[in-house]
């Protein structure tokens, strides 16, 4: 994966900024990864060095280390350089819409040496409409969204030694069987998540239990990641000998109001990595969290999407359509009309 390599005082930077000092909302894990990938792509298109500054609710590099690219931000980067912060979460992305389409150069909008940027949605489909995108970033034109996320994520991140030890101690040492079947259940607002969104229809748990009942319990361990203790309690009651439980308080990384935020972040990160490695994975129709886990899997079989009351077989490449994810389909899909195409061509 090719990214700009620059050195010296003339280097300009694009920094994904999720820090307490900004006082802005970063939202959940899937919002942050979508924002990181979008910012990474913008950094290439604007010919800037990509970095991440992330301390909400805790310092990211304590839990995730650089993969093949060192993204760690140091405040010395901004010393004696002009800088500005841009919160472009949600619909505020429209401020740079024409720049994403290639109608105008990103650096006509981002003029400072160091740009601190906060975004929370995926815009791969938007970038694909750029007239010169095959020359600017050829892999955007060649690969499915799921594969782009998998490769960019693994290019940027790997578990830190601390997280590797935690995954081993809290999960791998508890495994008893050769395979594991997993499900992610997001209920929405509940006693564990009093500030979360409210969903009109909660996932019918009986559908999950019926599926788990069909599995050979001599062959499968079971794991349930969820946003509410009641689901975990019911799973433990039904499958006391097979359920793998990761101890720790259930939290939302952007809604931490009590307890140790580092412990809550670690618990959620371990849930995420366990889902990635499951032999069978059931993803929630209300969550980008489990959709991202599906994207990062090394296999495409035994994946099920929860839609309504049913579990529907899906794949890494169809899951976003089956669960109707808006966040990972670019929101409102952009179009280029004749006038816009003419402007884009004249700026190419």
Explain what this protein looks like in three dimensions.
- With 348 residues, the protein is of the alpha/beta class.
- The chain folds into 2 domains: 13-159, no CATH class; 162-329, Rossmann fold.
- It is 33% helix and 17% strand.
- It has 13 helices and 12 strands.
- The chain has a 6-stranded mixed β-sheet, with helices on both faces. It has a 4-stranded parallel β-sheet with strand order 2-1-5-4, with helices on one face.
- The longest helix has 17 residues, at 29-45.
- It is globular.
Uncertain spans: 189-196, 330-338, 340-348
The CATH topology of the largest domain is given as Rossmann fold
**What is the tally of beta strands?**
12
The CATH architecture of the largest domain can be named as 3-Layer(aba) Sandwich
């Amino acid at each position: 994966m090719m990214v700009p390599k620059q050195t010296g005082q003339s280097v300009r930077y694009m920094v994904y900024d999720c820090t307490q000092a900004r006082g802005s909302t970063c939202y959940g894990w899937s919002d942050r990864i979508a924002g990181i990938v979008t910012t990474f792509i913008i950094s290439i298109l604007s010919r800037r060095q990509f970095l991440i500054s992330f301390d909400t609710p805790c310092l990211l590099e304590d839990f995730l280390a650089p993969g093949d690219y060192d993204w760690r931000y140091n405040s010395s980067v901004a010393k004696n350089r002009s800088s500005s912060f841009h919160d472009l979460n949600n619909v505020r992305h429209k401020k740079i819409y024409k720049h994403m389409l290639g109608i105008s150069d990103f650096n006509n909008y981002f003029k400072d040496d160091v740009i601190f940027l906060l975004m929370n949605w995926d815009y791969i489909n938007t970038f694909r409409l750029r007239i010169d995108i095959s020359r600017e970033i050829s892999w955007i034109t060649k690969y499915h969204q799921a594969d782009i996320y998998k490769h960019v994520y693994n290019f940027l991140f790997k578990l830190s030694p601390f997280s590797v030890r935690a995954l081993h101690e809290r999960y791998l040492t508890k495994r008893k069987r050769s395979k594991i079947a997993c499900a992610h259940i997001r209920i929405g607002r509940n006693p564990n998540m009093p500030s979360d969104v409210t969903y009109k229809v909660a996932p019918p748990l009986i559908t999950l239990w019926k599926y788990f009942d069909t599995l050979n319990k001599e062959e499968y361990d079971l794991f349930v990641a969820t946003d509410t203790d009641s689901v975990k309690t019911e799973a433990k009651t039904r499958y006391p000998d097979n359920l793998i439980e990761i101890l720790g308080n259930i939290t939302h990384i952007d809604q931490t109001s009590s307890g140790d935020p580092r412990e809550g972040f670690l618990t959620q990160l371990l849930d995420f990595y366990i889902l990635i490695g499951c032999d069978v994975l059931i993803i929630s129709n209300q969550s980008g969290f489990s959709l991202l886990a599906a994207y990062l899997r090394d296999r495409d079989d035994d994946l099920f999407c929860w839609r309504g009351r049913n579990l529907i077989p899906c794949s890494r490449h169809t899951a976003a359509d089956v669960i109707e994810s808006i966040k990972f389909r670019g929101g409102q899909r952009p179009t280029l009309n004749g006038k816009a195409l003419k402007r884009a061509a004249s700026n190419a």
